[in-house]
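Q&A log
Question type: sequence-to-structure
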Amino acid sequence: MTTESKIYWGVGIFSVVIILGAFLIPGDRPEKEDLPWHIEHPTADSVRVFGLTLGVSTPAEAEARFKEQAEPSLFKTPEGVMSAEVFFEQINLAGLRSRVVLTVGIPNTEMHAMYERGLRMAATGSAKKITLTPEDIARLRSLPITSLTYMPGVRVEEALFQKRFGKPTQVVKEAKTGAIHWLYPQNGLDLTLGGGEKPVLQYVSPKEFDALVKPLLANGEVVTQ
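Response status: OK
Response body:
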């Protein structure tokens, strides 16, 4: 996830009370598919969240689901690692303004070709952001989503997450930032808390979870298991 994807914003206190009340009170509202803890497993190795199945659903389907158009981009790190993403600046889920970033599964050879055809390049943090051609954007929208990162627009108490997700399998503290990660491998979920920031929830398929947390474990401290 890029630095640009980590920018958050607040909402009014009145709205926060209403939204968190909706999260806490069971009932027909909000819709189940709008809640971050409504996680389904269509197969043993798959995750469906916010009505999207990782590894199957596409950015085009996500745009139809969220009723918003996403901003597609290609990123390249100083180490040469590339990733393709689509970014929803603002969507409404359960009455809460949120941001969502989807990583798209593209073979490396195809990403390199997209990079070479890129229209513009800009710096974003330490990475380079490439503006894609219309043809490559259309291609990006047709490929499967491999991960989904959800960033709600308000801070949420840890107790609420534990009530909804249960006790994490493992808790890891980042050595550099001090951020705390609650790990739920059965749901492919990495929930990041701490530092006074709003939470960040990243979902991948369970079979991809080890690859997601490997760098975190290499550069962090296991707090509990």
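Response note: The helical segments are 13-24, 59-66, 108-117, 134-141, 158-165, 209-218.
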